[in-house]
């Protein structure tokens, strides 16, 4: 399969290695705005760039009828508009806040636990994410997905908020530390004990492999998808 990499930083480079090992051809490695010319006719685009450029990048690729796998976080206010553009152009789009198999299993575990905790009024709930100091967005896309999973399954919460919360808000604490690839925890605390579920990424390889697997899966599809569709979770 021909893959264009839009964004060629920490993630783009690892995706390049893994996709090449899996027999794919990388036809573009872009650190600038994609165009019909510089994309070089790929079957799929994998987009890991910056929050402020993601919308425009994805839009351009979809308008050229190229399916897009997007891992860039911090641009979600435009996601609905992008999903509309994918449908109008009869192509495919998949956003994943986190492409690793482990985190997608963790998402399912988090939703199950949120449902179990919905009547346990003695417990408060909080999320924590720890990432490297270069990360531009906070909270992480993964923490937002975890918060949304809790809100869907526990009527005690209606919205998430960074740090100090009131009423029905679910608090997310974002910590930036050294070169941490990505650690996410969900805590339920009472006066007498604590339940914690935690996912720790040891490196970025799991994110990159998941993005390539998603690209292989989406190649001839049309519509908007998530990693749940890819992994059958
Ligand atoms: N969903 C997931 O599983 C994961 C998501 N992420 C997310 O992916 C994104 C990228 O992460 P990471 O690779 O670590 O970040 P980096 O900062 O290492 O890479 C970003 C890349 O985008 C390039 N870039 C700058 N402007 C443009 C543009 N207009 N069009 C295309 N590319 C451009 C940068 O080029 P230059 O260096 O020249 O500025 C750089 O190569 C982040 O939003 C991060 O949160 C990260 C890991 C996993
Ligand atoms: O910026 C990162 O590095 C990561 N970003 C994603 C996020 O915002 O959740 C995924 C992963 O945690 C690494």
Automatic annotation (TrEMBL):
Gene (UniProt): dapB
HAMAP family per record: DapB
Pathway participation: Amino-acid biosynthesis; L-lysine biosynthesis via DAP pathway; (S)-tetrahydrodipicolinate from L-aspartate: step 4/4
UniProt name for this protein: 4-hydroxy-tetrahydrodipicolinate reductase
Residues annotated to bind NADP(+): 31
Organism listed in the record: Chryseobacterium gilvum
Location(s), subcellular: Cytoplasm
The family this protein is said to belong to: Belongs to the DapB family.
Function comment: Catalyzes the conversion of 4-hydroxy-tetrahydrodipicolinate (HTPA) to tetrahydrodipicolinate.
Entry's Gene Ontology molecular function annotations: 4-hydroxy-tetrahydrodipicolinate reductase
Quaternary state and interactors: Homotetramer.
């Amino acid at each position: 399969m021909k893959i264009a990499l839009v964004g060629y930083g920490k993630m783009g480079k690892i995706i390049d290695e893994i996709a090449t090992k899996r027999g794919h051809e990388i036809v573009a490695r872009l650190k600038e705005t994609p165009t019909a010319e510089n994309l070089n006719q790929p079957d799929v685009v994998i987009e890991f760039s910056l929050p402020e450029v993601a919308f425009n990048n994805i839009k351009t690729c979809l308008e050229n009828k190229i399916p897009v796998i997007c891992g860039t976080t911090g641009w979600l206010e435009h996601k609905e508009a992008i999903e509309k553009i994918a449908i109008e152009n009869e192509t495919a789009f998949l956003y994943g806040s986190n492409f690793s198999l482990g985190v997608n299993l963790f998402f399912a575990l988090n939703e199950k636990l949120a449902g179990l905790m919905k009547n346990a009024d003695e417990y408060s709930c909080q999320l924590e994410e720890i990432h490297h100091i270069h990360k531009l967005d906070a909270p992480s896309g993964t923490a937002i997905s975890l918060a949304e999973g809790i809100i869907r399954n526990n009527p005690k919460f209606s919205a998430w908020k960074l740090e100090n919360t009131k009423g029905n808000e679910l608090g997310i604490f974002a910590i930036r530390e050294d070169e941490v690839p990505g650690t996410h925890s969900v805590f339920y605390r009472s006066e007498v004990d604590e339940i914690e579920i935690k996912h720790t990424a040891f490196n970025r390889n799991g994110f990159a492999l998941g993005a390539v697997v998603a690209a292989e899966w989406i190649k001839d599809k049309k519509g908007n998808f998530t990693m749940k569709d890819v992994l059958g979770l």
